[in-house]
Each structure stands twice: as structure tokens, then as C-alpha cells.
Amino acid sequence: MVKQSMPQLRLVDTPNGSVTYTLTRKAVKNLNLRIGSGGEITVSLPLRCPVKQADDFIREKSGWITDAIRRRDARQAEPLPPVSREECTRLLEEALARVYPLVAPLGVALPALKLRSLRSQWGNCHWAQGYITLNTALARCPEGLRDYVALHELVHFLHHDHGPGFYARMDSLMPDWRRRRRSLKSYSGALER
Questions:
Q1: Max Cα separation, the chain?
Q2: Sign of dihedral through CA atoms 143, 146, 151, 152?
Q3: Minimum mean pLDDT among 46-50, 111-115, 152-156: which range?
Q4: In the chain, ranges of CATH 3.30.2010.10 domains
Q5: Are 20 and 9 in contact (CB under 8 A)?
Q6: Given strand 8-14, what is the order of strands in its sheet?
Q7: Domain 85-192 carries which CATH code?
């Protein structure tokens, strides 16, 4: 029994313009659509489905595809300004100092701050060791986003996981944290540099 076909390049006219994508038949239950880091579009199609179903799926999702590629291009097209090590240290220490008073009354001791270039995280909390790490790329982001990440890591001293208690505490300390988190996603290109 064939479990996967050779990839096939397809061109589909959609309400948002022509879309070229790579189609592969696989032993999957559902159609799967992916946009690669270079903007390439791939669709995995269940073995018994007609190719027309994949083309229709691309037409249906064409608006979403266009938006996703536009967002990816915007992230790559907006290089963030370089920041010296000294400036980075100053900016991230200031972020910690701005948000620490929110958790101090809750019994959180001021943690040590470490700075590192991280590839996939904006920060992390080492609550058992008493320190947080902030990504040096944060120094290239707006102040409000630096504050959000610093507070996020500080709240982990109170709630070690991302359970309901963690989110309730974030809601009470920084009511607009979800908006800030969404904004931070547009700076994800900084993580790769």
C-alpha cells in the first residue's frame, strides 16, 4: 500500500490571486496546510481524497495564506536596530525594576537577572535557583513588551506553570498582557538573529 506520493507542484487561481503550492498525498486524516519560513506553501492530502479538494481548500484559505505571508514578510522587512551590550543590560534591568514592585508585596524576592541570546524564548524563570533570564533580543523591542516578559517571568515565582492561577495573576497585575503578548509575536524575527 502506498503511504505517500511524490510531491506535485500546483497552481490555483483564487480570489486573492494565483497561489502555487506543493501537494503531497499522505496517510493523514485531514488536509494539512503549512507555510514554510521561506513562504513556500505545502498541502498534505489524504490518500483517497481528490486533488480538487486540495485546490478548493487553497481557494478557501487564500485570504489567510496572503495574510500569513504578509506578516512573515513584515517581520523580515523590519530589521530592529542593534543595541550595545551595555545598552541591552541597562534596558532589561530597567524593565525588571519597573515591574518588580508589582510582585514584591506578594512575597517575591528580587531575583538575579541573567541575559542571554535565546533562539526560541523571550525569557525563562529559574525559581528554585532565584534568577530569571531575559533574551538580549528584548532590548530591541518596545519598553511595554520588555515589561511584559519581565513580569511574566516574575509571576512564575508565584505560579511555576501556565495554569489558571498564573493567568489570573497576570490579569490582575497587567490587565493588557494578552495584547502585549500578541504584539511581541511581530518581533519574533529578532529571536533568529
A1: 64
A2: positive
A3: 46-50
A4: 85-192
A5: yes
A6: 8-14, 17-26, 41-46, 32-35
A7: 3.30.2010.10
